[in-house]
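Input (structure):
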């Protein structure tokens, strides 16, 4: 049956950890017999299940009430809630028996650090000058001093860049977070591009996404674009939508608003109506602080929290446990029992002298396997060079198209700011118009390039991966054929049935790039190309459902920043014409400067981005070489084991065989325990 509660999940996690410890003990016994088994794979699995928690990322635009919403879940007014943009640092809320706050620093620190940071932070940084800056403990009451923008009169994007802080971690005895749930408060999406990028980094780690709207404004254009262009593009469809401040909508208008909201939001979440909630976060906070259960019941927060707990427990909890159970079983069956124990038993039964003769006869197979590995590595290197060139050329062509569309985009802009002939207000009006136009242009370019990333880049990268899979597939199959023939000649162990060499390396690759040692149960059912696609989740790439969905190119940040600097430093406002004409002229000048900046920086940005994407894909393919090297090393280790057994008597060999069979029996019992836990999750 599915996981019924967090207590049930904790019990299952405990059994899994105990089973993995037992496997490690068996590995120690096997190494004591004479084998050479590296145990880091088991440690990785154990750490994954022990340290696993649920990350709940709260996203929303400024003024939508994210911090108030999180405070309402805690029943405490902990996170700062201001009427002006202020949150500059990610806040992680975790469970702790005692309240505490820990501030983590960026390593390395920014080149320039704001002079407005606290004296305590300055002294801490000076103390560890030139070294890695350790975190510092804060009083919870001090937190606001660090997580808000120090000087709101400055450009906010610059301010956050100058802050030396990475994140703040708050611990409270919060029941909702008791079982490994971390609530993450992110900066507002429309506060600055820099802070938005901080939020996007956390998207990669999220187990649940809570997108906060504020009634009566639901599903605004910028919010809907962000959901489709950023969140959906990363493969997230299980989204909770929180429509906050429903209490501010008149009673006779609430039904209409809810109907409208559901119509807009239901197509955007796979959770259906269980993913959309209309709440009064501030009311819930006040009710919890007063311990007024009746008032709390009317806020909608209890229903939401129950739905979130159920989702994390039944959906994410099951998936996370299976991600340990499946590779654990595969590690026992394939690595320990098949490739180590069975091989060694058969070799000992044959006798050392006979095995030595068999090894000599089998060595040509090992040499051929090494050659196939070299062929594979060469083909990967050539394919990656071709991929990088194709990405660079495609991105460069796309910029031609985007640049040609900018004039119309500027003409179509509906601006809130305009110029004035009043000399006392001219400077402030100029700066406001600059920021608005540049911000709009940045969003336009990023949106256009995001479409290219999802569509053209997807096709391009998929094509290269699929072609490379075909080119090296036969070589990988042959590699394993040669190793299996070596094992058969030496010890008489039959080749694994119904599993191709490509599937075997895929199984190991998946575990390597995702975080575990072996994931054969999944790897055997997927093509190697799909394994690579599903694993490439860094550097702005997200592979979901077997398809690469790239988001806004990282190189674009450099382009738009350069354009912005050029504009802000232009100093072109020397005009004395009427406000409307002046606005048009200045807007057009901003457009020209922006286009020129794009043209100046695009070559380097395209080259850098192509290199970044290619390196990310190459990193995953590079895992192949390590996997194949490990397979060869295991063969060499088995030869060394037999060599060490040269002086064993027949009786010694019989004792070793008996111990090996005893270890195999223990492993079978552990395997069955893990399988039973897995079956109970179905």
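Output (sequence):
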């Amino acid at each position: 049956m599915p996981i019924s509660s967090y207590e049930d999940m904790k019990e299952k996690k405990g059994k899994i950890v105990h089973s993995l410890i037992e496997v490690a003990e068996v590995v120690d016994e096997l190494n004591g017999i004479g084998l050479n088994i590296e145990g880091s794979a088991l440690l990785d699995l154990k750490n994954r299940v022990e340290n696993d928690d649920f990350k709940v990322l709260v996203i929303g635009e400024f003024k939508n009430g994210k911090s108030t919403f999180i405070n309402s879940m805690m029943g405490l007014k902990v996170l700062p809630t201001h009427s002006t943009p202020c949150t500059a640092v990610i806040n992680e809320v975790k469970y702790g028996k005692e309240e505490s706050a820990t501030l983590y620093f960026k390593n390395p620190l920014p080149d320039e650090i704001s002079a407005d940071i606290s004296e305590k932070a300055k002294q801490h940084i000076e103390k560890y000058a030139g070294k890695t800056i350790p975190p510092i403990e804060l009083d919870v009451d001090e937190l606001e001093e660090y997580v808000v923008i120090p000087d709101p009169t400055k450009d906010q994007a610059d301010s956050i860049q100058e802050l030396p802080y990475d994140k703040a971690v708050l611990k409270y005895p919060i029941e909702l977070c008791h079982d490994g749930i971390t609530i993450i408060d992110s900066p507002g999406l429309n506060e600055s591009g820099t802070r938005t990028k901080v939020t996007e980094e956390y998207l990669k780690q999220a187990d649940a996404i809570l997108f906060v709207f504020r009634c009566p404004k639901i599903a605004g254009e910028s919010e809907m674009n962000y959901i489709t262009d950023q969140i959906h593009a990363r493969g997230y469809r299980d989204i909770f939508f929180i429509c906050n401040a429903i209490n501010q909508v008149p009673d006779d208008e609430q039904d209409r608003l809810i109907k409208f909201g559901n119509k807009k939001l239901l197509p955007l979440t796979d959770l259906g109506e269980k993913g959309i909630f209309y709440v009064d976060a501030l009311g819930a906070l006040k009710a919890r602080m007063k311990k007024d259960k009746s008032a709390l019941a009317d806020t909608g927060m209890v229903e939401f929290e129950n739905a979130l707990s159920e989702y994390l427990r039944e959906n994410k909890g099951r998936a996370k446990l299976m991600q340990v159970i499946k590779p654990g079983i595969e590690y026992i069956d394939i690595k320990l029992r098949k490739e180590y124990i069975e091989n060694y038993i058969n070799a000992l039964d044959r006798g050392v002298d006979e095995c030595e003769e068999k090894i000599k006869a089998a060595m040509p197979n090992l040499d051929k396997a090494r050659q196939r590995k070299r062929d594979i590595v060469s083909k990967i290197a050539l394919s990656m060079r071709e991929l990088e060139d194709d990405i660079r050329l495609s991105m460069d062509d796309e910029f031609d198209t985007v640049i040609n569309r900018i004039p119309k985009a500027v003409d179509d802009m509906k601006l809130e700011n305009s110029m004035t002939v009043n000399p006392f207000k001219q400077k402030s009006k100029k700066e406001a118009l600059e920021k608005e136009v540049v911000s709009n242009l940045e969003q336009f370019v990023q949106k256009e390039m995001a479409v290219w990333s999802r569509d053209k880049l997807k096709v391009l990268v998929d094509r290269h991966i699929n072609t490379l899979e075909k080119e090296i597939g036969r070589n990988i199959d042959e590699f394993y054929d040669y190793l299996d023939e070596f094992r058969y000649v030496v010890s008489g162990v039959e080749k694994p049935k119904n599993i191709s060499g490509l599937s075997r390396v895929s199984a190991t690759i998946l575990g390597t790039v995702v975080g575990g040692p072996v994931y054969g149960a999944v790897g055997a059912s997927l093509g190697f190309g799909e394994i690579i696609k599903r694993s490439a989740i860094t550097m702005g790439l997200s592979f979901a459902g077997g398809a690469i969905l790239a988001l806004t190119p990282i190189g674009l940040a450099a382009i738009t920043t350069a354009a912005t600097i050029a504009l802000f430093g232009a100093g072109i406002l020397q005009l004395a014409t009427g406000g409307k004409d002046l606005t048009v002229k200045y807007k057009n000048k901003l457009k020209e400067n922006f286009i020129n900046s794009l043209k100046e920086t695009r070559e380097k940005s395209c080259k850098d981005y192509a290199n970044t994407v290619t390196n990310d894909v190459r990193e995953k393919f590079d895992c192949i070489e390590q996997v194949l090297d490990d397979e060869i090393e295991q063969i060499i280790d088995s030869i060394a084991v037999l060599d060490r057994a040269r002086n064993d008597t027949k009786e010694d060999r019989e004792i070793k065989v008996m111990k090996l069979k005893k270890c195999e029996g223990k492993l079978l019992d552990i395997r069955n325990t893990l399988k039973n836990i897995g079956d109970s999750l179905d």
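Notes: The longest strand covers residues 165-172. The chain has 20 helices and eleven strands.
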